[in-house]
């Protein structure tokens, strides 16, 4: 499906002029790295992530097919991160205690993660000294020695190493022992590293924003208010461009403090100083709402898509109507590739199949080309095309088609159009970026989407009738959602709901770690179509699930639109209510959510939402 992991790793390493010894230091041997680059060995997820992030690239651009233990650990880490975010310290402690029971390979990386989480727990409980000790111990697990009082970064850093240095900076920022000047130097050194070495802008963003915030905070403590404001403005500009919530509340609180020093904050020519308290209130209200949210287990999943080999084989075999006996073919007329007992062990995650067996099983199931453990959605000679694709998808999702078209033109010149996965993506984007579908009926549009899907999915007619336990890539899932979307846009809401619900069952019943990235879009579409068929409570419920997911990953891509949908539902309930008391209750809720939506839309410059709210207020006399 994509250029091999080892080939891409080697290309990136040589492009960045990084020696094998430098890249592998403290995380694996040079011999192991050589075998990975030669395609003779596949790393576990943590080693994969460390190698790629040391080159400043984001692992979220990949889909992962992992062995069961690696998938289990990744799911566990994802849950630990959630528990930390919602301040459930005792549960975090229990999870991290059992984490060590399953560490097999890349032990030093697992131990580093374990130490880091222990440090965070000490910090959250107020023991900063012990937290600092744990963070330094964590860095030593990968042979990284630093002088925290005079930071000088002389190594390339993985995601966790960079994260630990930021966590150390947080502790130092709250300690009185370190001078403001030394603290400023610490964060400035981190910022310079991030801007130089984190070349993937989506990978860079979180570290970048956090470092900028702490520089702004340090300068504020230094009473250098104008420079503090300058860094605040830089951070906010990044958040607005990427529609992110990351550290937004911290920036807003700092801007409140700067306001007391006579400095006003503007976005797009609008003075925000008087609006900041309400923005903070909105964020805090939704944080509280998320704590009350009841069905969290379906939504606490990695951002990227994670699958295990056993679940793909088991689920797809059932979907295709095959038995375990169908896999028992001979090799060279002599022996079975896999017997029934072996297949049962594989499907239940009790046996790790060899690559030869995986390829045989995937071929039997019509999944040829999808068997690589680490897969990119499109193929090319450099990693820049993955970054281009990520940005194109982002700009389409936030309705900035002109920007997407500009990047898409560059992408098409860089990829091999004859690769079927590249062809699938290009044909899909061609459809999405058309200025109008007026020359194509809804039926013709759906036929085009099915034709694009058929490039990589066998027995396409089954999709119309069966539950989907087949293994779909992210791009294939997006195409399936677009089919539901075509019914949605044409007003056939019941049929749209049918397609969306099939996708929802795919995520909830078959592939529980299929990524949040696409699942979040599905939740938003479900919230809309439930509202349009008059199921307002279901619509509000899905909207809240979508906001929970957005805030879990500190994203604001769709937040104003989701909150607008909640306000719209209350407006429709107001119009349909029989009693005056209910009408008044629903009117107040409609006004509340429209107000929240308009503030967020104004902040992120979403003119379409602002216009929709204005129209509905006028129409409904709110």
SSE topology sketch:
Blueprint: H1 5-15, H2 20-24, H3 30-37, H4 45-54, E1 62-66, H5 68-85, H6 89-99, H7 107-124, H8 128-140, H9 159-174, H10 180-197, H11 201-221, H12 225-242, H13 248-260, E2 266-267, E3 270-271, H14 276-292, E4 306-308, H15 309-320, E5 330-331, E6 335-336, H16 340-347, H17 355-364, E7 374-376, H18 384-397, H19 401-412, H20 420-432, H21 442-453, H22 462-465, H23 474-489, H24 493-510, H25 516-532, H26 536-552, H27 559-576, H28 580-603, H29 607-620
Parallel strand pairs: 1-4
Antiparallel strand pairs: 1-7, 2-3, 5-6
Helix pairs in contact: 5-6, 6-7, 7-8, 7-9, 8-9, 9-10, 9-11, 10-11, 11-12, 11-13, 12-13, 13-14, 14-26, 18-19, 20-21, 21-23, 23-24, 23-25, 24-25, 25-26, 25-27, 26-27, 27-28, 27-29, 28-29
Task: Tell me what the structure shows.
A hairpin with a 3-residue loop joins strand 5 and strand 6. It is built from 29 helices and seven strands. The chain is globular, with a radius of gyration of 25 Å. The model has no long low-confidence stretch (mean pLDDT 91). By secondary structure, the protein is mainly alpha-helical. The strands form three sheets. A three-stranded mixed beta sheet has the order 4-1-7. A two-stranded antiparallel sheet has the order 2-3. Residues 9-62 form the HTH cro/C1-type domain. It holds the Pfam family HTH_3.
Strand order of the largest sheet: 4-1-7
Radius of gyration: 25 Å
Beta-strand percentage? under 5%
Shape: globular
Mean pLDDT over the full residue set: 91
Instruction: Please state the structural category.
Output: mainly alpha
Give the count of helical stretches: 29
Span of the ends, CA to CA: 53 Å
Largest sheet: 3 strands, mixed
Taking pLDDT < 50 over at least 5 consecutive residues as the criterion, the unreliable ranges are none
Helix content: 55-70%
